[in-house]
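Exam prep: given the inputs below (a chain plus NAP), describe the expected output before reading on.
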Amino acid sequence: MKLLENKTAIVTGASRGIGEAIAVKLAEHGASVAFTYLSSDEKAKALEEKLAGFGVKAKAYKSNAAVYADCEIFVNDVVKEFGTVDICINNAGISKDNLLLRLTPEQWDEVININLKSVYNITKQVIRPMMKAKKGSIVNMSSIIGITGNAGQSSYAASKAGIIGFTKSIAHELGSRNIRCNAIAPGFIETDMTHYLKDGDTSKSFLDKIPLGRFGSAEEIANTTLFLASDMSSYITGQVISACGGLNI
Ligand code: NAP
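Solution:
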C-alpha cells in the first residue's frame, strides 16, 4: 500500500545518509520529492534520477539550509513547480565536535545555524502553503544527544535540544490548522556522520549501551519518518520519537 500518493514532500540534506533514505522512502510511497543538498552535486543528480524512477516528480536544489534567503527561494520555487508542500522533513545537519574549552565561536555558530536555524528557515516558509491547504506534516531530525547531552558535543546537543522545543511550540501554534509537527531522535545510525565511531574499542563501548546491540540503518529512520509524514500518525503531534535501539532506557 502506498501511503503518500499525490503528496509533495520537501527533504533537506538528502544527497547522502538519512536524508537520501528518506527521499527514496517517500518517493516509493508515491510522494513527489523536492530535496536540498550543499556540495554533493553528482550524488544529488543520481538521487533525482532514482526518485523519478518511482514515477513521481523529483527535483534537486543546491540550497544552503542555514541561509534564510536560500530557503525562501527554494520553497517558493517548490510551490511554483509542484503546486504545494504537504510534507516537510527538516533533516540537514552536521556535527563539529569539540570540548567546550576548545570550541570556537565560529564552530558554535556553524552547528547552530545549519542544525537549528535551518529548521526555522524552512518551517517558516512551508507553513504558508500548508495553512492554505489546511493540512501538513513537519518532521524535524533531532538526536538522542539533544536529550541526553554528550561530552564534546555541546553545540550539537544544544542545536538538537532546540529543535525539540521548536517542534513542540509549532505543534501548539499550528495544531488548530491541521498541521502536525513532530521530531525524531535517532541514536547511532550508520552514515558518513558516524563513520569514525565504527572502529575498535569506540565501537564496542557504544554498542554495549544499546539494548538491540547494533547501530541503526538510515532506512530504519526513513521508516519512522514515513510513519510521521503519513496519515498513519494523524493523531500524533508535538512528539519526539526515539529511534535508537533502546539507547535511551
Ligand atoms: P550525513 O551523512 O553527514 O549527511 C548530511 C546531509 O546533509 C548531506 O546530504 C549534506 O549535503 C546535507 N547538508 C549538510 N549541510 C547542509 C546545509 N547547510 N544545507 C543543506 N544540506 C546540508 O548525515 P546523516 O548522518 O545522514 O544525518 C542526517 C540528520 O540526522 C542530521 O540532522 C543529523 O544530525 C541527524 N542525526 C544523525 C545521526 C547519525 O547517527 N547519523 C544520529 C542522530 C541524528 P552535502 O553532501 O551536499 O554536503
